């Protein structure tokens, strides 16, 4: 009997040991598989980052980087006659542009954000008067373009809102939009009519700044700032104020309306939450969907590669099953002193999802040539403008409504918004009460 008991205990011990070994092997194998999967994702992210920061060609000089960036932008140069960091291989032009851009946005301290909030409110009211031909309906994309363009005139050239001709601003932004669409067609030539409309509008809007020499033309400064901003502001405002059905996201917008802009530069919870609204807009709708680089600095060699920023920003393997939904709370755990929590080295042995998210987020570029607005200014501008648009027009919950001119877009509130310029032209805002 004792022998039988001993055998039974031994058998049970053997079975338990075997199960333990199988379980251990399973978890070791699972860990290795997870590590391998994360490493593959990391390699894919690094591939896009290397294109964006020029390192796909190894070590490069500033002259080479400027040429690698400017060659794919040749059509923008042809269309808008720009001479700035994005279209030149001349170091002097590049540095002059950077200096001027940094000087223009440098006064953005707490007191200046308060003043800019007041200016923005005034610009929204004045812009509204030029879109009152069919109340209570407003062509939303056109309105946001005019408002953002006018705010840029104030920020970059210190133009008082009372001195802005909003009719001319509407002409200028319409012409820019049409010319930009044409520039994307390799078989299209720029419209001489739209170029002339834009030139004449700028001369009336900026009589003291307008010069015909390319290097001092105000469009060199206006285009990067305006084009970086207006689409993200429009799409973020629509996403959080008119497409959102998540109560937590609604609360985040309400808190931002209560705290912006006085929370800026306070390094507190209110600022983190407000900037998360902008960060999520930049993630889902990056200002530059693809960053193009030439593959050679040699004239006549026209190969191009692209870092697909939008694809990286929307990768479900990195951002989760809800990657295509607008949820600013995903940025609540990010550090408050920068746009990315990515470590300097992209070869960390213990890779996790948070690390991958940090590397995956580069809406203002990466490496030695980031956007001048990347150090907080851009995010604060987006948060401020989204909040002021909400204060001015209200939200879906308060009775305002957006007609998208598309049945599928109208119904699929959890899907990303179409972000092409022509997609947004039919969006109409219906204001509660018509005022």
UniProtKB/TrEMBL annotation:
Q: Which SUPFAM superfamilies match?
A: Cytochrome P450
Would you say which domain of life the source belongs to? Eukaryota
Please verify whether the record's keywords include Nucleus: no
Q: Enumerate the UniProt keywords alphabetically.
A: Membrane, Transmembrane, Transmembrane helix
A single Pfam family, by name?
Answer: p450
Q: Which residues form a coiled coil?
A: none
Residue stretches spanning the membrane = 6-28
GO MF annotation: an example: monooxygenase activity
Is Transmembrane helix given among the entry's keywords? yes
**Protein name per UniProt:** Cytochrome P450
> From which source organism is this entry?
Xylaria grammica
